[in-house]
Amino acid sequence: MPLLSEQNRRKRNLVIIAAFLVLIGGATVFDLGIFAPELPVASNIVIFALFNLNLIVFLLLLLLLFRNLVKVWFERKQQVIGARFKAKLVLAFLLLSVTPAALIFVIASNFINKSIEGWFKPQVERPLDQALAVAQTYYNQLERTAVRHGQHIARVIARDGLLAEDRRDALAAFLVEQQDLLSISALTVYTAAGQELANVKDPVLSDVIMREGGPGAEVKRGLAGQEVTTVRELATGDLIEAVTPIWSAARGPDRKVLGAVVVGSHVTERLEQKVRGISTAFREYKQLKLLKNPIKGIYILLFLLMTLIVVFSFTWFGLHLARGITGPIEQLAEGTREVAAGNLAYKVEKRGDDEIAVLVESFNRMTDDLLQSKHRLEEAYIDLQDKHTELEDRRRYIETVLEAVTTGVVSFDALGRVTTINRAAARMFGIAETAAVGRLLEEVFAGAELREIVTLVQRARRPRAGSAAIELHLRRGNASLALLAAATALRAENGEYAGAVLVFDDLTELLTAQRLAAWREVAQRIAHEIKNPLTPIQLSAQRLRRRMAPHDADEQKLVQECTETIIQEVDGLRRLVDEFSRFARMPAFVPKPSDVRPIVESVAALYRESHPALALTTRHAADLPLLEVDPDHIKRAVLNLVDNAVEAVGGTGEVLVETHFLPGSARVRLVVSDTGPGIPQEARAKLFLPHFSTKVTGMGLGLPIVKEIASEHGGTVSLEDNEPRGSRFTIELPVARTPATVEA
Amino acid sequence: MANEHILIVDDEKAIQKALRGVLEDEGYRVTAVGSGSEALKAITEELPDVVFLDIW
């Protein structure tokens, strides 16, 4: 049923009450019409009004009860929270109350029924009936007797003419006599005119005034010739009076009324009362009999009403109790819904002190805790996010670093499986990064030369070792790779072995540089040591040539030839030594912004001059930027390359010198290519190492010097095959100079 | 150029000897010293016309 607001509810109730009042009125009228039209209205109204009231109240209560039950049923149907419990409770109370109440009702109504029926048993009715008959008969008898007496006295009076005025005493005596004889209570004689002649009264009636103000109506009727009997109620009982006219002796139409005799028969109070009582009782009984059913109805209805009240109160009580429980339960249910939806600030109102209130309190506390937990969780989550980001950043940083460094880094877990391997390490050992991860140490570093690595890790594993290092020399095709391998054990907080990290430093370049430096020192020293004796030798030879004047031409020729040879060779030696010296002691690196194109041109010019048969072409990039270079060094490098190229083509052939600019990588290329025989594969490995030369003269220091110069500028030098034949040397220099890694 | 004074400065005795030989053949007066300080001293003693200053 829909909820109505307070106001609406009140209005509705008023309407209901009014309707009921109308109903009562209408029903009463209706009932009166149907049931007992002949009964006195006054008592009827009461009874019937009562009946209707009962009925209506009964209906009302029934309605209310029914409504409540229906409401509970509907709630249960709709599965409103708590409805089932309510229904259960209400049903329980209902049954609990209905059973005894119904029982009592049945018993009571049965009892009433029987009682009321009992009132109207024939055993009761008949005696009443008969008593009444007796009483009536008695009175009738008295009346008849009175009439007879009257007739007798009238005859006598008429016969004896006692109405005459002079016979007054005789009348009186006669009357007394008759009264005594006939046991009459009162005797009165009237004239035809209605005048009272004489009367005799029983002492009992002495206080009674017979007639006031002349003859009454009955006497007049008696004087008119009628015989009338009346019953008069007195304070002392009843007086039955019979009025008999005194007829004249004549018969037929001449008969006339001479007077009237009134004979009174007194019924004692007691008797009269009894008779009256009988008559009243009978009358009442008869009335009651008519109302038997309505009365029964009233009582039954009353019982029904009371039963209903009991049931209703029980039910209402049950409802109230249920509501007291389901109310908070509904609220709790609502609360749980709110909490589930995320509203943790919801609080349920606590009412009273019972267990439900305790439940409500714990619920509130629980939501509070939940809210706090939620906050803490949120905080922790944010914290976690931050930490995660931090971790991510750190990880990315490490990854970047690892990938960028030239040092190889390989890490293992406690079981010896590779967990990470960086690009440098992959390159060093020729392993694919992705393939290595997860594999065992022994698998990845297989082979005789790599076994040392495994041993290294094992050494690092030893409890007090911490780390260990060795030098490795690997072969990579024709080249040799020198590595410094260091292994460090990772330990967990409790000291347990958790894996290891291998670090590989490429020493090759370092070693090469060291070797170069050593060589340089040697070269310097040798150059110095050799140069010193050369001068005296040459000078001596020259001196000999000048001063020697031998006697004959043969000797002269001999001296000339020999000294010539000496001088030439010494010259050659010196040049060699000079070259050596220059390699060993390069002038300082002084970079300044320079355009390399004129440098190239000057070198080209040199060779064009000295080698007219040579086809030496230069090609320059138009947008070549200025480079931070030492012009002398660059000149030397280009010169060395061109020298080689010229040498390769044998002084006649094509040599091309180009300059290129690569804006994308910010690099500049100097390319010297020739159409010579090219350089065989096996020679290439040693090409840039000192002391390798295919030239007749010279120590093969040209290319190492070029490499040195390229390095100090932060660049590189490389060799490729030229198309269709020959060699192509490229010096690549960065536009923004990075400092050299090896000191010149 | 006869009789000019030539100063040779070189730490190698062999070179001093070789140069002296050649130059004296041509008739020059030669003073040979083996270090920078000695050279300065020689210059103050007699100013040379030509100085060979450690050619190599």
Ordered list of secondary-structure elements with their pairings:
The complex is a heterodimer of chains A (744) and B (56).
Chain A: H1 6-35, H2 41-77, H3 83-119, H4 122-160, H5 168-182, E1 186-191, E2 196-201, H6 217-223, E3 228-234, E4 237-247, E5 257-268, H7 269-341, H8 355-404, E6 408-413, E7 418-421, H9 423-429, H10 433-436, H11 441-444, H12 448-461, E8 467-476, E9 479-491, E10 497-506, H13 508-547, H14 553-584, E11 592-594, H15 596-610, E12 614-619, E13 627-629, H16 631-648, E14 653-662, E15 667-674, H17 681-684, H18 702-712, E16 716-721, E17 727-734
Chain B: E1 5-9, H1 13-25, E2 29-33, H2 36-45, E3 50-53
Parallel strand pairs in B: 1-2, 1-3
Polypeptide structure, described:
The complex is a heterodimer of chains A (744) and B (56). Chain A contains 18 helices and 17 strands. Chain A has helices spanning 6-35, 41-77, 83-119, 122-160, 168-182, 217-223, 269-341, 355-404, 423-429, 433-436, 441-444, 448-461, 508-547, 553-584, 596-610, 631-648, 681-684, 702-712, and strands at residues 186-191, 196-201, 228-234, 237-247, 257-268, 408-413, 418-421, 467-476, 479-491, 497-506, 592-594, 614-619, 627-629, 653-662, 667-674, 716-721, 727-734. Chain A is rod-shaped. The two termini of chain A are 104 Å apart. With 56 residues, chain B is an alpha/beta fold. Chain B is 41% helix and 25% strand. Chain B has helices spanning 13-25, 36-45; strands spanning 5-9, 29-33, 50-53. In chain B, helix 1 (13-25) links the parallel strand 1 (5-9) and strand 2. The termini of chain B are far apart. The chains are: A alpha+beta (744), B alpha/beta (56). The A-B interface holds A 531-540, 542-543, 546-547 and B 12, 14-15, 17-19, 21-22, 25, 55-56.
